[in-house]
Write a structure and sequence with these properties.
- There is one protein chain.
- This protein has 139 residues and is mainly beta.
- The chain has a single domain, classed as Jelly Rolls (Sandwich), CATH 2.60.120.
- The chain has one helix and nine strands.
- The strands form two sheets. Strands 2, 3, 5, 6 and 8 form a five-stranded antiparallel β-sheet that branches.
- The longest helix is centred in the first third of the chain and has 15 residues.
- It is globular and about 40 Å long.
- The protein starts with a helix and ends with a strand.
- Keywords: Signal.
Amino acid sequence: MFKKFFSSLLVGATLLTPTATFAEPEYGAGEWDFMNIEDLDLYTNTTVRSQTYLSGGGNFLVRTTNIASNNTYVVRLYEQDADGYDDFIGEKKLTGSGDAIFSVGNYVDNDGVAGKAEIYARIGLATYSDSSAEVKFYD
């Protein structure tokens, strides 16, 4: 009887333990965490601003898709500051769809959301205007 009681207790505890199927997803270091997808137009004479995303540091990925293979453009990354003087993180020049990876660890501060960098991209200055660009953001 003692053995059956502990066997039942063990089975019950196992069933109540959260598993990957039921647990909330956990974001972790060393993994790309999908933030959002935006449809942004590419223009030849200017850049278009994305939404602002919160990053805990490390690397930040801007992935472009649906862009013609002969269209060259820039992806610029900024950290938004409360004082209005946003920090320029860097610029990548891409041709066609591609990935632009930036290191944002030095931009985590306490001017907006404590312990987070407020990141946004400006994309454009393209060889050809394009209204079908899709941009995905990962932290």
